[in-house]
Design brief:
It is found in: Cytoplasm. The protein is of the alpha+beta class and about 140 residues long. It contains seven helices and four strands, in the order E-H-H-E-H-H-E-H-H-E-H. The protein has one domain: 2-Layer Sandwich (Alpha-Beta Plaits), CATH 3.30.70.141. It binds adenosine-5'-triphosphate (ATP).
Length: about 140
């Protein structure tokens, strides 16, 4: 059975939307395997976002992600990787479809699309890598 790493980003936590994100994951029928509020450091975030290193938004993204606590979640279920990305909506909250987390709850505050409430792993390889990074005890 598939697992994915979800992060409620600092904007989601500070706006009090952690519970809403968990509610949507559970309402969809996925199981919560791990839920932990943490403040990430540079080392963790640089590994987490390694594929974006060198891009202009990389450092602002890392700085934003360590600006406050994030809620790290491992969710489980059949096709949960694709399923959570569908729940989240597209990267840019302005155009993310209504009904999605980003579409319903996110907007562009003039800070481009760095602050888009949630992260979800985008493939089985990313999910395995990200879960091992955030929850070493769940690596498999
Ligand atoms: P995530 O992986 O967080 O679910 P995603 O797959 O929709 O998001 P990616 O292209 O993997 O988006 O980018 C990772 C994150 O980097 C985005 O969620 C967003 O926070 C930030 N980001 C992406 N593109 C930009 C950009 N052009 N300007 C600012 N931030 C960006």
């Amino acid at each position: 059975i598939q697992r994915t790493l979800v992060l409620v980003k600092p904007d989601g936590v500070s706006r009090g939307l952690s519970g809403e994100v968990l509610r949507r994951i559970e309402a969809k029928g996925y199981t919560l395997v791990a839920v932990e509020l943490r403040t990430a450091d540079d080392a963790l975030l640089q590994q987490h976002y390694a594929e974006h290193e060198g891009k202009p938004f990389f450092q602002p993204l890392v700085d934003f992600m360590k600006s406050g606590p994030v809620l790290a979640v491992v969710a489980e279920g059949h096709r949960v990787i694709e399923g959570f990305r569908s729940l989240a909506g597209t990267t840019d909250p302005t155009v993310a479809a209504p009904g999605t987390i980003r579409g319903d709850l996110g907007r562009d505050w003039g800070l481009k699309v760095t602050q888009n409430l949630v992260h979800g792993s985008d493939s089985e390889d990313s999910a395995a890598r990200e879960i091992a990074l955030w929850f070493p005890s769940l690596a498999r």
